[in-house]
Amino acid sequence: MIKFFKSTIFLLFLFFYFTSCDSNSEFNINEARSYIYKQNEEYMKYYNSGNASGVADLHTNDALVMPPNTGMVSGKKEIKKAISDEILAGATDLVFDSIDIYGNQDYITETGRFSLNIKKDGKIVMSDSGKYIVLWKQVSKNNWLMKADIWNSDLPIKL
Fold first, then answer.
1. Are 110 and 35 in contact (CB under 8 A)?
2. Spatial CA neighbour of 154 closest among 125, 117, 113, 120
3. Main-chain dihedrals φ then ψ at residue 83, nearest 5 degrees
4. What global pTM score does this model have?
5. Angle 41-52-138 from CA coordinates, rounded to 5°
6. What number of other Cβ atoms are within 10 A of residue 152's Cβ?
7. Domains contained in the chain, number
8. Can you tell me the distance from the alpha carbon of 52 to that of 46, in angstroms, rounded to the nearest whole number?
9. Mind listing the pLDDT tens digit for each residue in 8-25?
10. Which residues 6+ apart lie within 8 Å of 31 measured at CB?
C-alpha cells in the first residue's frame, strides 16, 4: 500500500511538473514574428537616419553580414563600418518587406525583399531593390538579434 501511495504521489508530481513546464516553454512563432517585425522597423529607422551604430546593435556580437559586391564582414565593429560606408555613399529610404518567417525557439529564418535609394545632394541618383535572407538568433526571452544577413540586388549587371 505504501509503495502504491508513493508511486501515485510521484506520478502526480511528474504530471504537474511537466504540465507547468510545457505551458511556460512553448514556442510561439507569432510572438517571434512580431518581435522580428519590430526589429526590422528599428533597422530601417536607424539606417534611414544615418545611425550605423544602431543598425550594428541589432546583430549578435559574432554576426556575419554578406553585402553585395564586397567581402563578408563579421562582428559589430565591422558591420557598423560596412553600414556606415553604405550610408556615406548616399543609401537611404530603406524599406523591408518580409515575405516569410519560420523557425524554432533558437533560430528564425526570414526571407524578404528590400528597396532603397541612393541620393546625392538630396536628389535620387539611383533606386535599387532586391531580396534578402536573415538568420535571427534568440539571445534571451523574446530578444532576437541578427546572426547572419545576406542581400543582393535585382538590378542587372552592367557590362
1. no
2. 113
3. -65, -40
4. 0.82
5. 55
6. 14
7. 1
8. 7
9. 555 445 455 554 444 446
10. 142
User: What does the angle CA 117 – CA 118 – CA 124 come to, to the nearest 5 degrees?
Assistant: 80
SS3 81: helix
Q: Is 136 exposed, middle or buried (0-12, 13-18, 19+ CB in 10 A)?
A: buried
The answer to the question of residue 11 being in a domain is no
Q: Identify whether 81 is part of a domain.
A: yes
Q: Does residue 123 lie in a domain region?
A: yes
pLDDT over threshold 60, residue 112: yes
99 lies in which domain range?
Answer: 25-153
Strand partners of residue 124 = 119
- The one-letter code for the residue type at 19 is T
Question: Is 114 inside a domain boundary?
Answer: yes
CATH number at residue 128: 3.10.450.50
Residue with the three cell numbers 533606386 = 127
Residue 112 backbone dihedrals phi, psi, to 5 degrees? -170, -175
